[in-house]
């Protein structure tokens, strides 16, 4: 390998590492639950960007994002049920010592989504606070 190909190889490795933090995760169960959580983050980002005025308020897009969070919350207990481990996972083992509380945290998030009324831009901020509190409540106890 000459010096140029080596440099290209290193550059590609750096790009891949930055773009795909999950690329090192080999366990399919762990990968699926990380992807689910990443999707949660994506939906919150849509709502957050609208709240900050980076994108225009769009009631339809809000509904899609909130409905997606509800579906993901509903799926959470199923995807985390198996105590799969991976060095890159941020899941704490206490999830499987106290799975019923973990499942309740997911249900609590789902219930928040059901209670939200977002009809205009100013409704987004309090809604995000409630959603964020539900995410944090679970992360605080069950995530590294
Ligand atoms: C019932 C518990 C629970 C709830 C509720 C929850 N999370 Fe998580 N979340 C976790 C756990 C556990 C992990 C670590 C998973 C792993 O690494 O194996 C995680 C990981 C994540 C990650 C990192 C994913 C990655 O790239 O590896 C993001 C982003 C995230 N959650 C966002 C959210 C958002 C946003 C919400 C609320 C809308 C939320 N989560 C609600 C338990 C929860």
Automatic annotation (TrEMBL):
<dbReference type="GO" id="GO:0042597">
    <property type="term" value="C:periplasmic space"/>
</dbReference>
<feature type="binding site" description="covalent">
    <location>
        <position position="138"/>
    </location>
    <ligand>
        <name>heme c</name>
    </ligand>
</feature>
<dbReference type="GO" id="GO:0005506">
    <property type="term" value="F:iron ion binding"/>
</dbReference>
<keyword id="KW-0408">Iron</keyword>
<protein>
    <submittedName>
        <fullName>Cytochrome c556</fullName>
    </submittedName>
</protein>
<keyword id="KW-0479">Metal-binding</keyword>
<keyword id="KW-0813">Transport</keyword>
<dbReference type="InterPro" id="IPR002321">
    <property type="entry name" value="Cyt_c_II"/>
</dbReference>
<dbReference type="GO" id="GO:0022900">
    <property type="term" value="P:electron transport chain"/>
</dbReference>
<dbReference type="Pfam" id="PF01322">
    <property type="entry name" value="Cytochrom_C_2"/>
</dbReference>
<keyword id="KW-0349">Heme</keyword>
<dbReference type="InterPro" id="IPR010980">
    <property type="entry name" value="Cyt_c/b562"/>
</dbReference>
<keyword id="KW-0732">Signal</keyword>
<feature type="binding site" description="axial binding residue">
    <location>
        <position position="139"/>
    </location>
    <ligand>
        <name>heme c</name>
    </ligand>
</feature>
<dbReference type="GO" id="GO:0009055">
    <property type="term" value="F:electron transfer activity"/>
</dbReference>
<dbReference type="InterPro" id="IPR012127">
    <property type="entry name" value="Cyt_c_prime"/>
</dbReference>
<feature type="binding site" description="covalent">
    <location>
        <position position="135"/>
    </location>
    <ligand>
        <name>heme c</name>
    </ligand>
</feature>
<keyword id="KW-0249">Electron transport</keyword>
<feature type="signal peptide">
    <location>
        <begin position="1"/>
        <end position="21"/>
    </location>
</feature>
<dbReference type="GO" id="GO:0020037">
    <property type="term" value="F:heme binding"/>
</dbReference>
